[in-house]
Specification:
The strands form 2 sheets. Strands 1, 11, 12, 13, 14, 15, 16, 17, 18 and 19 form a 10-stranded mixed sheet that branches. An 8-stranded parallel beta barrel has the order 2-3-4-5-6-8-9-10, surrounded by 4 helices. It is of the alpha/beta class. α7 runs parallel beside α8. α4 links the parallel β2 and β3. The chain contains 13 helices and 19 strands. The structure holds pyridoxal-5'-phosphate. Pyridoxal-5'-phosphate (PLP) binds next to α11.
C-alpha cells in the first residue's frame, strides 16, 4: 500500500495534530508545491503556442489558490457571476476569463458582457436571449457532440441524455439565430464529462468538435473541455492519467487539422479537478467508535457538509490514519465505515473498507480532497465550514480561509 503523504512529503515539517490544534478541526490542508506542479504539467500538455489552459474554478475557488494558478499562467473558466467576481478579486482580467454558463438570466449574461468577458451559451433559447440583449456582438456556443465520459452518471456532461450543450443536429438553428441578431460565433466549446483516466473518449470528442468547427466561419477559439482524471485509488496502485502520450496524440490531431484547414485558431482545454485535487488533504478527528449489528462505525467530524463527494457520487477517497502524528499502517486491519456528524444516514465518508484499526482521538486524513471539496461544502446542520491552510514551498503555513463563525450563520438576518 502506498501512503500519499509519504510519497509526497506532503506536510513538510508540520504535524497533523499541531495543524488541527492551531486552526481547528476539520481542516483543508493544501500543499503549494503539488498545486504548482500540477498546473505546470497541464500547461505543458500540448507543446503548441496556440494551446491554452483555462482552470475551471468551480473545483476550488479559494482566492489564494486562484492567485497561485494565475502566477502559473493558467486562464480561468467561470460558471456564474459570483465566480467572475472572485476571479476579478484574484487579479484575473477580462481576457483571462471565459464564462461558461447554463440557464442564466439576461442580467447575469450582462454582468459578463459589461466587463468584456466572452460568454458561452448552452442552448438555442439562451443564444436567442443573448442575441436579443446583445445584438451585433461576439459569442461562443457550447455543443454536445453526443459523446460522454466520467466516473459517475451525475458527472457525465456530454452524451445524449444530459442537460448540457446544443445538439449537433441543431447547428443550422444556431446560424439562423446568429444571423437574426448579427452575432458572430467566435468560439465553440464542449465538456464531455469528469474524471476520465484514459484519453480515448476525450480524443474522440476532440476529433468530433474539430469536424464540427469547419461549419463555423468566424471561429477564434475551440475549447475541448476538462475532465482530466486523477488516481483516487493510489493505495490500490492506481496509476495517473498518462499525460505524455495524451499530449502527443492531441498535438498530432490539432497540428494536422491546422495544416489541413489553414485556420488560425486558439485551442483550449479546461481542467478543474486535475489541477487542484491532489494538492489537498482534509484532516478530521475521531470522536467515537461503535459496533452496530456487526458493522463498525468510526464517528468523525468529517460530515458531508465538509466533503460531499462520497455521499453524493459514492466517490472513493484514500484514507490515512495518524496517531500521535505517526502514520498508522501496521496490522491489525479491520473493515470499517467512517461517518460524520450530520444527522442523515447517508452521511458516510467510507463504506466497509479494510483500514488499520482506528481509535478515538486518531486523526483521519482524506486524500485528494482539493477538488470539489471545500467548493461543495455547506453549513448544513448549522455546522461551520472549515478553515483552509496552505503549506508553502518553504514549509511555512498560511491560513488561506478562516473557519466560519457563529456570526456567519446569522449574517443574512
Ligand atoms: C466542471 C467543468 C469543467 C471541469 O471539470 P473537471 O472534471 O473538474 O476537469 C470544465 N468545463 C466545464 C464546462 C465544466 O462544467
Amino acid at each position: 500500500m502506498k501512503y500519499f503523504s509519504e510519497i509526497t512529503d506532503f506536510y513538510k515539517q508540520n504535524k497533523p495534530s499541531e495543524l488541527l490544534e492551531q486552526f481547528g478541526s476539520p481542516l483543508y490542508v493544501y500543499n503549494e508545491d503539488i498545486l504548482r506542479q500540477r498546473a505546470r504539467q497541464i500547461k505543458s500538455l500540448v507543446d503548441m503556442p496556440n494551446f491554452e489552459v483555462s482552470y475551471s474554478i468551480k473545483a476550488n475557488s479559494n482566492l489564494h489558490i486562484l492567485k497561485i494558478l494565475k502566477e502559473e499562467g493558467l486562464y480561468a473558466d467561470a460558471m456564474s457571476d459570483g465566480e467572475i467576481f472572485i476571479l476579478e478579486k484574484a487579479g484575473y482580467e477580462k481576457d483571462d476569463i471565459f464564462f461558461v454558463c447554463n440557464n442564466v438570466s439576461a442580467e447575469e449574461m450582462r454582468y459578463a458582457v459589461d466587463r468584456g468577458i466572452m460568454v458561452s451559451v448552452d442552448s438555442l433559447s439562451q443564444l436567442d436571449l443573448y442575441g436579443r440583449n446583445f445584438p451585433k456582438s461576439k459569442v461562443s456556443v457550447r455543443l454536445n457532440p453526443g459523446i460522454g465520459a466520467g466516473h459517475h452518471q451525475k458527472v457525465v456532461t456530454g452524451g445524449k441524455t444530459t442537460k448540457f450543450g446544443i445538439n449537433l443536429e441543431k447547428i443550422e438553428d444556431i446560424f439562423d439565430i446568429s444571423r437574426k441578431y448579427n452575432l458572430k460565433i467566435t468560439g465553440i466549446n464542449q465538456h464531455i464529462g469528469s474524471l476520465f483516466m484514459s484519453s480515448t473518449e476525450y480524443l474522440r470528442g476532440v476529433n468530433e468538435l474539430l469536424q464540427t468547427a469547419l461549419f463555423f466561419k468566424d471561429l477564434e477559439f475551440i475549447d475541448f473541455g476538462g475532465g482530466f482524471g486523477i488516481p483516487y485509488k493510489k493505495q490500490e496502485g492506481q496509476q495517473p492519467l498518462e499525460l505524455v502520450q495524451f499530449g502527443q496524440d492531441l498535438k498530432y490531431i490539432l497540428s494536422q487539422w491546422q495544416s489541413e484547414n489553414k485556420r488560425d485558431i486558439i485551442f483550449r482545454c479546461e481542467p478543474g479537478r486535475f489541477v487542484v485535487a491532489e494538492s489537498s488533504i482534509l484532516l478530521g478527528k475521531v470522536y467515537a467508535k461503535k459496533n452496530n449489528y456487526n458493522k463498525i462505525f468510526i464517528g468523525t467530524d468529517l460530515g458531508f457538509s465538509v466533503l460531499i463527494r462520497p455521499a453524493m457520487y459514492g466517490s472513493h477517497h484514500d484514507i490515512e490514519v495518524y496517531r500521535k502524528n505517526k502514520l498508522v499502517k501496521n496490522k491489525p486491519f479491520e473493515s470499517v465505515n467512517i461517518t460524520g456528524n450530520i444527522c442523515e444516514s447517508g452521511d458516510i465518508l467510507v463504506e466497509e473498507r479494510e483500514l488499520p484499526v482506528i481509535n478515538e482521538e486518531d486523526i483521519i486524513g482524506v486524500m485528494d480532497a482539493g477538488a470539489y471539496g471545500y467548493s461543495m461544502s455547506s453549513n448544513y446542520n448549522n455546522r461551520m465550514r472549515p478553515a483552509e491552510v496552505l503549506i508553502k514551498s518553504n514549509g511555512s503555513v498560511q491560513l488561506i480561509r478562516k473557519r466560519d463563525t457563529f456570526e456567519d450563520l446569522i449574517k443574512g438576518f
